[in-house]
Amino acid sequence: MARSAPPRRPGGLGRRHRRPDRPCHRDGSNFKTVADLPDSESAHAYALLGPSTGSTETGRIVWRTADEAVEAAEVRADVAGMLARVASLPGVRAIGSPYAADGSAQLDTGRNTAYATVTLFGR
Predict the structure, then answer these.
(1) Spatial distance between the Cα atoms of 49 and 56, rounded to a whole number of angstroms
(2) CA distances from 70 to 16, 57, 61, 66, 107 (A)
(3) What pTM does this model have?
(4) Where does the chain show beta strands of DSSP type E?
(5) Which is more confidently placed, 66 or 11?
(6) Burial of 118 (0-12, 13-18, 19+ CB in 10 A)
(7) Which segments carry the region annotation Disordered (predicted)?
(8) Residues 59, 63, 64: CA angle, nearest 5 degrees
């Protein structure tokens, strides 16, 4: 009578598997933190981005109200709180509020829509 192989553990781990309490040190000092991926999409993206120039990036936060006017006091207060939180985030250089004296072009009262500009520090 032929002997059958012992059953395998789920996932194909068999008897040789790494235990969490015993780190594997087979590769010794060959571990590297540099990834060289020539002709990959990531390499092309990094080449396009180039080195940091200290420039800034600008984006918008847009909101629309359904039941209240976008310039209503309650909406203005809610948005002012949100913009203050955004302004305190790391990397934010400036916020341009539509409720500021020079921000009226960022309000569309006919559609109850407004936006704030957000300027970020460069990479």
Answers:
(1) 13
(2) 64, 26, 14, 9, 8
(3) 0.54
(4) 57-64, 92-96, 107-108, 113-120
(5) 66
(6) buried
(7) 1-36
(8) 150
Residue in 118, 117, 116 with CA at minimum distance from that of residue 91: 118
**Start-to-end C-alpha separation, the chain:** 70
Burial (CB < 10 A; 0-12, 13-18, 19+), residue 97, is buried
Residue type at 68 in one-letter notation? E
From 77, 87, 79, select the one nearest 115 (Cα to Cα).
Answer: 79
What local confidence, expressed as pLDDT, does residue 58 receive? 87
Instruction: Give dist(CA 18, CA 44) in Å, integer.
Output: 37
DSSP state of 7: P
